[in-house]
Fold this protein.
Amino acid sequence: MSLKSFLPILEWLPSYNKKWLKGDLGAGLTVGVMLIPQGMAYANIAGLPPIYGLYASIVPLFIYAILGTSRQLAIGPSAMIALLTATSLGSFVDLSIDQYIAYAILLAFIVGVIQFLLGIFRLGFLVNFLSHPVISGFTSAAALIIGIGQLKSLLGIKIPRSHHINVVLENIYDNFSEINWISFGIGVVGISMILLFKKINKALPSQLFAVIFGILVVTAFGLNTGKNVVDIVGEIPNSLPKFQIPLLNWDLINSLLPMALTIALVSFMESIAVAKAVQTKNKEYKVRPNQELIGIGLANVVGSFFQSFPTTGGFSRTAVNAQAGARTGLATIISGILVFLTLLFLTPYFYNLPKAILAAIIMVGVFGLIDYKEVIHLWKSDKTDFFLLLVTFLATLTIGIEKGIGLGIILSLVIVILKTTRPHVAVLANIHGTHFYRNIERFGKDVILKEAILIVRFDAQLYFANTTFFKDKLEELVVKKGDKLKLIIIDGESMNSLDSSGVHALIDVIDTYQLQNIKIAFSGMKGPVRDVMRKGGVIDKISFDHCFMSIQEAVDCYEHQCNNEPSEKKFNKFIEQSN
Amino acid sequence: MSLKSFLPILEWLPSYNKKWLKGDLGAGLTVGVMLIPQGMAYANIAGLPPIYGLYASIVPLFIYAILGTSRQLAIGPSAMIALLTATSLGSFVDLSIDQYIAYAILLAFIVGVIQFLLGIFRLGFLVNFLSHPVISGFTSAAALIIGIGQLKSLLGIKIPRSHHINVVLENIYDNFSEINWISFGIGVVGISMILLFKKINKALPSQLFAVIFGILVVTAFGLNTGKNVVDIVGEIPNSLPKFQIPLLNWDLINSLLPMALTIALVSFMESIAVAKAVQTKNKEYKVRPNQELIGIGLANVVGSFFQSFPTTGGFSRTAVNAQAGARTGLATIISGILVFLTLLFLTPYFYNLPKAILAAIIMVGVFGLIDYKEVIHLWKSDKTDFFLLLVTFLATLTIGIEKGIGLGIILSLVIVILKTTRPHVAVLANIHGTHFYRNIERFGKDVILKEAILIVRFDAQLYFANTTFFKDKLEELVVKKGDKLKLIIIDGESMNSLDSSGVHALIDVIDTYQLQNIKIAFSGMKGPVRDVMRKGGVIDKISFDHCFMSIQEAVDCYEHQCNNEPSEKKFNKFIEQSN
């Protein structure tokens, strides 16, 4: 492994092309400008003061620029991870705000360590167990929870935090008379502005326009005090993130661990998905999942020493970054510098920023994540996956965010396993005038059925959980076929692997039908399966004359008693070979 | 469903053939004679007084004879289930013997209810998740634990009960001077007798001979008292099992539930395996797994109301039953009656039975279960399954009996899942002079490679956990193939199913390679996969001209630009049809 593979920045920095600078600068500034209101808004979702959103938008960006393999990924706070952060800490009661902040920062540290270790041990593939419907169901539910949770800021009413939609909606209903219509009006205008400018050009800093609008309205009409007061961000301390060792309490780490693992995987899933999507249009580099884990992991770890809560590569910012012309990690560095300068000089200007505008930014962002098209598509194309999406969605909404995704993952694996225990089995026959053998149920009229031969295709690996089904199904087909049956051809094209239970089953089957004077032949078994059959003694048991390259050869051999020097003889070496 | 399917006894009793009676009577008596010492011995393993072994050999037998589908299965106490019973109750400290008995009986009740419910809800297939290597490793370890545990009775020394082999062996070593050599001598003669008579004829009541020998020696030499005393069974109350409602304490039931589930599955696994093995030689009936669960389940439930601890169909007794000529459940009823009569009249005669003889019976029984041949076979034929067997064996021995089997089950499923995340992928090419397309790595010199065409076979279902691998692997192969590549043929013969993540991956792949001017074609996709491709929009995306019946057709079409009215046209209806 070269130094470059550990420090991907070396892939572009030493050979930096001046032509890239324009794109990097433009994109870096655009994303930086996006990050400022987004960071504050997402800190709000996490239950943290706005400034921590800015803290999380500096150090992690620099670290990722050095260690990450994607050149467009825009690291920073994300709505979903902020929500998961709030959920993780929600179970601790009676925390002071300082404790809460310390816990959130510790969480970033643990998440980072987990991601780093996953990367080192090359376990990035684990994220593949998050299936499409599970991600989609989870994301939509999380978006709904975040969006509904922002209603109180949009409406300017004070109700307790909750991650249960029904509780939030009930509270709003009960406090309907308390709605601050000015706040609501500002929010609605904010939402409209963001949507409108986005429509005009995605690279426009539409969120910043909404922020400026909000500050101007509050300042101009004196809405920060008096009768028509709206909730504002208030004073943001003019301080940079301090170096500070996270609160390394072992009991606390233990209790945060399960949620930290969830956050580590979800945040990696979020960033790797968008990194790969962007990379397909940028062929000059390659995203390496395990290095990405190391990059994001260390961004979180180092970030946690500078008061950052968990961060990841965000969907929308990354898209904007790519669209605005980012060519290298320099763009991300520029974004970080911009946030740094803001912290130094500009925080007083955010004093009058109405919280309704932050809510507007969040709501536009998260409602875009609700993927109703996928729901319709799955309903039409794949009922099982539709069901999986629905269960994950509902479970995330009702029983809890982390339990919802956990249930989705387990359920999707259970479904995969259960399906292979009762796989599709086809009886094949020759399509008239061809050498194709196909399912008689699908190719009904065009196939030639023979009474003496049963050709079976078992569409799964033969392994412990389906050997009983295999034997039962075969018996059922044999009984159905009747007394004239003399030969069963087991077509191996779709039998992808064979374990020792499968070997026992095949030997059982050979023994059972031998007693009934029915021969067994195998056709088209693939290499890895042939290897197991040979080592497990199946081929010794039936000998090579019962193994064929194709169904046709098996049928020919049977029908002509193999007298005419069957063509398969010359392929014996292929059937024998075992490498 | 007919009444017969609920009461399988109606399948044979109304049409009972007098000719069967001789076999049934002989087998019933033989098994009954076996059951008496075995029952007492297995009660000993379970930590119960000997008489409970006889109680468990009456009522459950009658119930199974009415409700079970196997006509030879010999129900009753089993060594493995007795061991699991002892393990379940081992975690309760300071139980009086009466409490211990009440708990064991409650356990039978819970096990029975679980089995009954599994049967009613047709969940018998769950037992298939116990793979061959896991069963083998678990059984061998359990046999070793039971066998070693009997050493103290064989040697006539008093050491505390333990299910940890190392503890037992250490204790024996520490108490070496205490060994009662007379007891040991009786035991060794007992073992030799059982093995010898078994060798002569398996249907001989060899265990009974050992029992008689033991009683005679103790009586003749006065070994039940004085200087040369050996441990004897002592007084067995002359009482029949009483009707008595199990101790239905909810908290207790809750704490026994996990172990009861293990026992329910293991005992079902034990009995269904032997029932199926015996049935293959008796074609006049069919073992139905779910009805078996109902039968064994109710045998346990009803048994628990008559002081029975958990029972199941035993390996060795069932084999003897079949060999001795049992034709129907009447044999089992006769065995039960024999035990009943023994309880009424013969228990005083067992007073002088040395415990070393019971130990001998158990040790011969369980050491026969250690399947070292399978270990050697797996070492040679299947390293993964060998590893699985070894882990299950070691875990059962060291971390605990129920945890061992649990770990084995989980590990075997994890391996299955992990294997499908990185399946075998083959690049195919035409074998010279044939229409076969095979793996170029295996058929090296005989294949014709074409620079413009890449033919890939992915040996697994394409689903969420391997779509990334699929895309990465394809890209790797495309890069390796070089610039002249114009067509990728994805051979579908081994792609057994496709979920919505797989659909997304295929669409991704089509889009990606379109940008590089490489076409994608599919050949030999099977029905269920075609259905998903159609519904998911993959076929619409590439249109029918890119779907072929076989690889050869795809190659022909590409090479002749499909000008010559390709033969696959006439199969369009097959490719289109989606039923």
In short: The radius of gyration of chain A is 31 Å. The CA atoms of residues 39 and 54 of chain A lie 6 Å apart.
